[in-house]
UniProtKB/TrEMBL annotation:
One of its GO terms (cellular component) is cell surface. SUPFAM superfamilies: TNF receptor-like (SSF57586). GO terms for biological process: apoptotic process; Rho protein signal transduction. It is found in: Cell membrane. Residues 20-53, 55-96, 97-135, 137-178 form the TNFR-Cys domain. This is Putative tumor necrosis factor receptor superfamily member 16. Residues 271-280 have a biased composition (Low complexity). The lineage of its organism: Eukaryota, Metazoa, Chordata, Craniata, Vertebrata. TNFR-Cys repeats lie at residues 20-53, 55-96, 97-135, 137-178.
Length: 311
């Protein structure tokens, strides 16, 4: 080998070793292979020539890392029970999450419905895309009278010792039942939920139903019917709207009649003006013709008399 060629080759190798190279790869000429930044992918790998990069397509392909070998990858598509949580960009893949009221089960690898806490238990931790609902038993004067995946245990109602009588004790599945004996019988107790099975009269659940509690004696009582102010207000507005509409229609009709009457009046006045103008123009001419015809008749009469006398 030519000594000069060998020396040049050795010099290039030395420079390549001394030069820091993040990719750890070199071209045939000894240059450090360039890395494509996030958002760009490799179109042509480093080898005989330097690395060639190209921009990834936003919302279609992405590249998250520096690399001298990775191409742009296709974006993840959220399908089925998955919803799009974070859109795909040229440097970050899309992030999918389970639909609302579903969570991702790592064991089964799919979205499953969130657990609904039964009565007597409240929600301790709400269901999210990466974990299920966590329920807890209602204790320490708390209750939950319905199945729910959102509501926690609620504090029990405390009856007013001075004005109310406690008819039902709070339990994990129902609230306390308080009753004010000074109120009319058609007013429901202060509790918002039906009580447990104590025995008493003239009590109906707050939901307005007429079914007494188990063990209670049935007596006639009318529940307070709800009143909707908005419904009556809308009914009061209907006659107002009708009156306004009728006034608008009457106004339009009166305007049209007035315009027609005014137009006829103007037309009639214009016709009278034309007739008066014509009379003024015809009268002098008529008098002139009449006078001319009278002169002609007199002349003819005189000529006839002179002719008879000569004969």
């Amino acid at each position: 080998m030519d000594p000069e060629v060998a020396f040049a080759s050795a010099s290039k190798t030395e420079r390549a070793v001394l030069q820091p190279c993040d990719s750890g790869q070199y071209t045939s000429s000894g240059e450090c292979c360039a890395e494509c930044p996030p958002g760009e992918g490799v179109v042509k790998k480093c080898g005989a020539t330097q690395t060639v990069c190209a921009q990834c397509l936003d919302s279609e392909t992405f590249s998250e890392n520096y690399s001298h070998a990775e191409q742009c990858k296709p974006c993840t598509q959220c399908t089925g029970l998955m919803r799009l949580q974070t859109p795909c960009t040229d440097s970050n893949d899309a992030i999918c999450a389970c639909n609302y009221n579903y969570f991702f089960n790592g064991i089964s690898g799919r979205c499953e419905p969130c657990t609904v806490c039964p009565t007597g238990e409240g929600v301790y931790t709400h269901c999210d895309h990466d974990h299920d609902t966590v329920c807890e038993e209602c204790v320490d004067d708390t209750f939950s009278d319905r199945e729910s995946s959102l509501e926690p245990c609620l504090p029990c109602t405390i009856c007013d010792e001075e004005t109310e009588v406690q008819l039902g004790v709070c339990a994990p599945t129902y609230d306390s039942v308080c009753h004010n004996p000074n109120l009319p019988t058609d007013i429901t107790p202060t509790s918002d939920v039906p009580a447990s099975p104590p025995s008493f009269t003239n009590y109906f659940p707050p939901d307005g139903s007429e079914s007494p509690l188990p063990g209670a004696e049935t007596t006639t009582s009318s529940a307070v019917s709800p009143r909707f102010l908005g419904h009556g207000f809308n009914e009061n507005l209907i006659p107002i709207y009708c009156s306004i509409l009728a006034a608008v229609v009457v106004g339009l009709v009166a305007y049209i009649v007035f315009k027609r009457w005014n137009s006829c009046k103007q037309n009639k006045q214009a016709a009278n003006n034309r007739a008066a103008t014509n009379n003024q123009m015809v009268t002098p001419e008529g008098e002139k013709l009449h006078s001319d015809s009278g002169i002609s008749v007199d002349k003819q009469r005189d000529i006839s008399v002179d002719r008879d006398q000569k004969q």
